[in-house]
TrEMBL record:
B12-binding N-terminal domain segment(s): 103-145
Entry-linked Pfam families: B12-binding_2, HTH_17
Protein name stated in the entry: Helix-turn-helix domain-containing protein
Domain Helix-turn-helix per the UniProt entry, residue ranges: 7-56
Organism: Candidatus Doudnabacteria bacterium CG10_big_fil_rev_8_21_14_0_10_42_18
GO molecular function: cobalamin binding; metal ion binding
Length: 289
């Protein structure tokens, strides 16, 4: 039997990376670490394998002085930033136990906004176009979208927010008639790393609910998304904008389905056709703690 005295426990690794023990166990299950098991059934990681892992994933250097010393001077791997490969990964897998590619990109030091704008967003557009043309089934469209959603939730656990007393609050919601929630999750990830507290209302929200939630949560920012909806938004938008303007709350919108007539900026309102633009805007706007 191996001498595991100097091998690392999942608890020790979680403290170095500043993540939950459950995250380390998930990485082990997905093959990030090779482990040996003690006679008591506890998993241990070889220090050599641990060093190889953190050398491969430079993003973790930001969490620990120990890791910074180990990987100092390592080159960053940008090859992970490829939406075509990510689509193939989604199309080829049907199991939630496969390695989370978005987590891997993040650990390879790819920024959250780059992952979302250059990988996730074009992948979603591609899936939508293929389904509209009848080149993939509704089963495949739903399956890949579900896997993508789970990948985003896995990525969310790695993003360290600075939420505390005085942090600004953003209310996020799909407009009435829209049932595409992934854009809300993408906005949540961007805002979380900036220190915003987010309230996600989900799909198909009446204007009255957007206003009610914003008032109740003392929001400083309202984000509306529309990927597809048959409902005319003129009166809907007017109601939310009127509230936002009178309450000095910023209103932001986005999505491929957002009406052209409502994309022009005006006092207290901006439409964004890219996540990078929204990211820059929200950074300046909230001045999170």
């Amino acid at each position: 039997m191996k001498n595991l005295r100097n091998w690392l426990t999942t608890s020790e690794i979680s403290k170095i990376f500043k993540v939950n023990v459950s995250t380390i166990k998930r990485w082990i299950d997905k093959g990030f670490f090779r482990v040996s098991v003690t006679s008591g059934g506890h998993r241990r990681v070889d220090p050599k394998d641990f060093k190889a892992f953190i050398a491969k994933y430079p993003k973790l250097a930001g969490n620990s002085y120990v890791i910074k010393k180990i990987i100092k001077g390592k080159e960053l791997n940008k090859k992970a930033l490829n939406w075509q490969n990510y689509y193939i990964y989604l199309y080829s897998n049907s199991s939630l136990n496969v390695q989370n590619k978005l987590e891997e990109m993040f650990l390879l030091n790819v920024s959250v906004v780059d992952i979302l704008q250059n990988v996730v967003a074009p992948t979603l557009v591609h899936i939508g176009k293929l389904w509209q043309k009848g080149k993939i089934s509704i089963y495949d469209e739903h399956r890949m979208t579900f896997l993508l959603r789970m990948d985003l939730l896995g990525l969310e656990k790695l993003i360290s927010g600075r939420i505390g007393f005085g942090s600004p609050t953003a209310v996020l919601g799909c407009v009435a008639g829209d049932n595409h929630e992934i854009p809300l999750l993408m906005l949540h990830l961007l805002l979380k790393q900036q220190g915003y507290r987010t309230v996600i209302l989900g799909i198909n929200n009446p204007a009255s609910e957007i206003i009610h939630a914003s008032r109740k949560e003392y929001a400083s920012l309202i984000c509306l998304t529309q990927t597809f909806s048959k409902i005319r938004l003129d009166s809907y938008f007017d109601k939310v904008y009127k509230y936002a303007k009178s309450s000095k709350v910023w209103l932001a919108s986005g999505g491929a389905g957002w009406p052209i007539t409502l994309r022009k900026s005006k006092k207290g309102y901006r439409y964004f056709d890219s996540l990078s633009e929204f990211n820059k805007f929200s950074k300046k706007l909230g001045k999170p703690v």
